[in-house]
Amino acid sequence: MKAENGFLPYDIFVFSGSNNGTFFAQEVKKQLGGNIYQIPLVTTKQNVYEGKRMLVIYPTYAYGIPRIVKHFLKHNTFNYEYRAIITSYGTRTGGSLLEAKKYCFDYYHSYQSIENFIPLFGNVKDLNAKYETELASINHLINELRDMKLRPIKGFHFLKPVSLIFYYGRPLVTKLIRNTKDCTKCGLCLKECPTKAIFFKQGKIKISSRYCELCNRCLNVCQFHGLKFLKHNKRAKTYLHR
Fold it and tell me: How far apart are CA 209 and CA 124, in angstroms?
């Protein structure tokens, strides 16, 4: 069934802590039509998804594919005529596309979005110029999705030393996210956490290292600086895609 614009619509599955990927998904829906599914809301179910075209959007992390996305791709069945994966990255493309090679999609690509890992890189700068560059990349990718271009990926995936540190050290890194005295215990971070990794214990916010993806959404939605993590402190500006 074609959308009103005459194109076959996409089923769009997205994971995004900063809304970068969600913005891309909304642009695809606006230009090509389709439905957007937030991966955290469907990943606990084992389903058979089917249709004409599908697109998976997720960020590249230092340790590769976000684990929640990996679980989603591994434990569900996708019967589509055309399947695409697009990853966003801030500084480096990383190896998450090669890691996704085993899922046998028709189209693999990545684009540079807004580097927003404030704990390491500090406040986001020149935001408007970066938005313009990002949107140009997104429109190029949408044109290729419109034509259902084939873009297989070649090579072998292996974790680089830095990726290995983050992969195995992630449970320890999550312990660096801590409450500050400015926390109002409003519960917004619990509500907004896409993986439900946040809980209260003895009146303080706690992070489950089992479920935390280090997406930093909890840090960015809090307007009271109730949480801190390295450079993401009281002097840091929060970031969510416009």
Answer: 26
The candidate with the shortest Cα–Cα distance to 141, out of 23, 5, 17, is 23
Quick check: 147 and 10 in contact, CB under 8 A? no
Token reading at 135: 């949107």
- Tell me the C-alpha distance between 207 and 147, whole Å: 43
* Inter-helix orientation angle 20-32/127-146, to 10°: 40
Q: Where on the phi/psi map is residue 230: left (φ > 0), alpha (ψ -120 to 50), or beta? A: left
SS (H, E, C) 9-22: CEEEEECCCCCHHH
pLDDT digits (tens, 9 = 90+) for 73-100: 999 999 999 999 999 998 877 778 888 9
User: φ, ψ for residue 47 (rounded to 5)?
Assistant: -130, 165
Tokens encoding 130 = 């970066």
CB 112 within 8 A of CB 89: yes
Q: In 175-216, where does DSSP find H-type helix?
A: 188-192
Instruction: Give CA–CA dist 151/241, Å, rounded.
Output: 28
Q: Are 58 and 69 in contact (CB under 8 A)?
A: yes
Distance CA 196, CA 96 (A): 23
Q: What ranges do the domains of the chain cover?
A: 10-146, 170-228
All residue ranges of the chain with pLDDT < 70 are: 1-7, 43-45, 157-162
In the three-class reduction of DSSP (H, G, I as helix; E, B as strand; rest coil), residue 142 is classed as helix
Q: Domain 170-228: which CATH class?
A: alpha beta
Q: What is the pTM of this model?
A: 0.91
97, containing H or E segment: helix 96-99
CATH topology of domain 10-146: Rossmann fold (3.40.50)
3-state class (DSSP) for residue 205: strand
